[in-house]
Design goal:
- The protein is of the alpha/beta class and about 210 residues long.
- It has one domain (about 1-200): 3-Layer(aba) Sandwich (Rossmann fold).
- The chain is about 35% helix and about 20% strand.
- It contains seven helices and ten strands.
- The strands form two sheets. Strands 1, 2, 3, 4, 5, 6, 7 and 8 form an eight-stranded mixed beta sheet that branches. A two-stranded antiparallel ribbon has the order 9-10.
- Strand 3 (about 25-30), helix 1 (about 35-50) and strand 4 (about 55-60) form a beta-alpha-beta unit.
- The N and C termini lie far apart (about 35 Å).
- Residues about 1-5 and about 5-20 have low confidence and may be disordered.
- Keywords: Flavoprotein, FMN, Oxidoreductase.
- It comes from Actinomadura adrarensis.
- InterPro entries: Flavoprotein-like_sf, FMN_Rdtase-like_dom, NAD(P)H-dep_FMN_reductase.
- This is NAD(P)H-dependent oxidoreductase.
């Protein structure tokens, strides 16, 4: 595993059998904290996902991309390193957009990242949305803020979405078995869709 200040890449896992296609997963993390509850939720999700199919996971921490990102108004303004990071997200098989909730919505730095993404780069892209917040009422961010954001990009936001509140964690470790169950069941429900993207063979839902 190689590590940079903004991106963490992991080696492919082959739990479902040798020769299977690998799903390239890119996490766009909107939390300013390291570690964070948001990434605790994502790591739990990735753990269950690895049990379904081989994946190669990369992580983009938007709050740690530096002045070449924060000072950019247009895509042309970013540094080559940030350009490579944005392209990583645009070229994923599955994009996991994960963010904490601030005042009922995603933080500005998270939005700034997607402001720099090409308008058509995520068209038909599989996107899984996830969020964490102080209480259950913040779960509305999934349907009222995150799903419309990716609707603008014409992305294929998967039907399931994951949310966890502060009380579901011990520190940054997700403990609530009900949330674990929702993640496991939700991923099983869309496993064929995800597997189809890895193999390039359309599933019944992916038409």
């Amino acid at each position: 595993m190689t590590t940079t200040p903004a991106i963490i890449e992991s080696d492919p896992t082959t739990r479902t059998g040798e020769g299977d296609a690998v799903l390239r997963v890119v996490v766009v993390n909107g939390s300013p904290s390291r570690p964070s509850k948001t990434m605790g939720l994502v790591e739990t999700t990735l753990g269950y996902l690895k049990g379904l199919l081989p994946i190669e996971a990369s992580q983009i921490d938007v709050y740690h991309l530096g002045p070449g990102f924060t000072g950019a108004v247009e895509r042309e303004d970013v540094t080559p390193e940030v350009e490579a990071t944005i392209r990583l997200a645009e070229e994923a098989d599955l994009l996991i957009a994960a963010t904490p909730v601030f005042h009922g919505s995603y933080p500005g730095m998270f939005k700034h990242f997607f402001d720099l993404v090409d308008q058509y780069a995520l068209a038909n892209k599989l996107v899984l949305i996830a969020a964490t917040g102080g209480g259950d009422r913040h779960a509305l961010v999934l349907e009222h803020a995150l799903r419309p954001l990716f609707g603008f990009f014409q992305a294929m936001t998967v039907p399931v979405a994951f949310y966890a509140s502060s009380g579901d964690f011990d520190g940054t470790v997700l403990l609530n078995p009900r949330v674990h169950g929702r993640i496991q069941v939700g991923l099983n429900d869309v496993a064929d869709l995800l597997r189809a993207r890895a193999t390039g063979i359309p599933a019944a839902q992916d038409v």
